[in-house]
Amino acid sequence: MMGVQLTTMLRFKRLAQISSDPKTIGESLKHSKLMQVSEDGSKIRRNPEVPLPENSLEYWQVVKRRTVYIKGFERDTKLDDILNFVKQFGSVENVMMRREKSEKRAFKGSVFVTYKDQETAEAFVNGDTKQFNGNDLLKMMQNDYWTNKQKELKEKRLAARAAKQAKKKAAEVESKKKNLEIVHFVKGLVLSVENIPTEDCDLAKVKEFFKQFGDVQYVVYEKGDEKAQIRFGGEENGAAVAWKVATEKGDGKVMFGGNELKGTVLEGEEEEEYWNNFSKKKADKQARIAKNRREARVRGGRGRNGARNCETRGEKRSAEEMTKDTPEKKLRKVSENEESKKATKTIFADSD
């Protein structure tokens, strides 16, 4: 009979722990329905009448429906102890001890147990047995375990992604906070004006009007709005000085387009906000200019075939031919030189 030598099988530690005598193992297997033993008791093989199941998706779907997940064993629990426990509830085909992926392959405290049929597996899961050696057990069908596991993994991925995004956003905020330059400014230069005419008025008119009272550096105004901010140059409190000049010229009133203006000098948080906004707009403008310059350099780089400014080799060659001396051009040059000499002689003759 073809088969495997029992002496070879005894190299497996678990079998050797049962017995190291081939004859003893052979005698025990003679009563097995799954295995066959040779006449001399030296070899074993699988019973041909009990073939291996087909390795197909359909088969494993059936296996999963009769496999249970159990968690709660001590990490030093032995396989024999688990087998003796689960066999109390029905015929067991397989027990898989789940182990860590590390080199030590330590037992994780959970197992997959495959019973002979689905009814036995479900009866165990729904049964009253909920402990092993005083430890509470978690029991469920394998399909339920994988469903819960997938949901748990999805939630972990979403949480990790949210944490990563929050961390990135916090880093960006912190980076902006660190990179934000402290705006240094001279206090009292910004005048806030109200009651500007909403019709027949624009930025140029507002700026021109206030120029008569001081050195206007910058104006924040939108056409149709009744408010404006005028920044004056000079030393501290320049806006107050300009407003004083305006009121003195108007006998206590500042009239513009038929409206009496109301003016206040920005200070405190309002003044800081003005300068922060101004600084941000300035930085954004510089960034746009830098971007446009980069794009312009890219567009003006090497063209096709390595020619600069999109000049092809053919175009370059044509340009060279245009500047090259041809026989006709040489003859024309000689003629022009002769005419030049004649003209020169005539000039000298006249001068004599």
From TrEMBL:
Signal peptide: none annotated. GO terms for molecular function: RNA binding. One of its GO terms (biological process) is RNA processing. Residues 184-308 form the XRRM domain. GO terms for cellular component: nucleus; ribonucleoprotein complex. Residues 66-165 form the RRM domain. Pfam families: RRM_1, RRM_3. PANTHER family: RNA BINDING PROTEIN. This is La domain protein.
